[in-house]
């Protein structure tokens, strides 16, 4: 699969995560034992799809294995998966059984939901994004971007930016803002050194635009 198609698929996953999270139609239980709702199950599946696509993107921009990049990517996957697994489970328990944190059990569940799981999967997300951008910067594509490349990066970047705005602009902001800012800064720094690289333009456009649009909406 080409880099453009991988970026399009990655953008689609990010949009689907936002739709799934905000949709009122996925709140039904996923099984008779009520272990999770469909929203949590679908988020877990979408996060798996996102990791697979990110790995394929890593190999697309740098086909040759690199020990340090691959090791860092594996660490990022572990953090991302551990965070998502912890968050989806405790978020469900928090919403259903712990509307307040009066008991020690609910206090711990809320901490896992709102803090610990976020630290894990945001750290993983940053690592995965930075590894892919570093792979592109360390093995730049010498071919000039075509009109189709420009169109693809703008379209997909704006889709991701819309997903960022949907998750940041209309809810209380926590660690999300800092994560988006870190990825945006890394993308801009690498893009200044390698301006013609498709993946760097994608991340730069998506995260800078999402950050600026969020700031504009919240300031209005």
Write a structural description.
The protein has one domain (3-219). 79% of the residues lie in helices and 0% in strands. The chain is built from seven helices and no strands. The protein starts with a helix and ends with a helix.
Comma- or semicolon-separated keywords:
single chain; 220 residues; mainly alpha
What's this, in brief?
The chain has one domain. The protein contains seven helices and no strands.
Radius of gyration: 18 Å
Strand content: under 5%
Mean pLDDT: 93
Number of domains: 1
First-last Cα distance: 41 Å
The low-confidence runs, each spanning 5 or more residues with pLDDT under 50, are none
Gross morphology is globular
The largest pleated sheet is described as: none
- The helicity comes to over 70%
H and E string? HHHHHHH
Number of strands: 0
User: Helix count, per DSSP?
Assistant: 7
Structural class: mainly alpha
List the helices and strands and how they pair.
Layout: H1 3-22, H2 38-61, H3 67-97, H4 104-138, H5 147-168, H6 175-193, H7 198-219
Helix pairs in contact: 1-2, 1-5, 2-3, 2-4, 3-4, 4-6, 5-7, 6-7
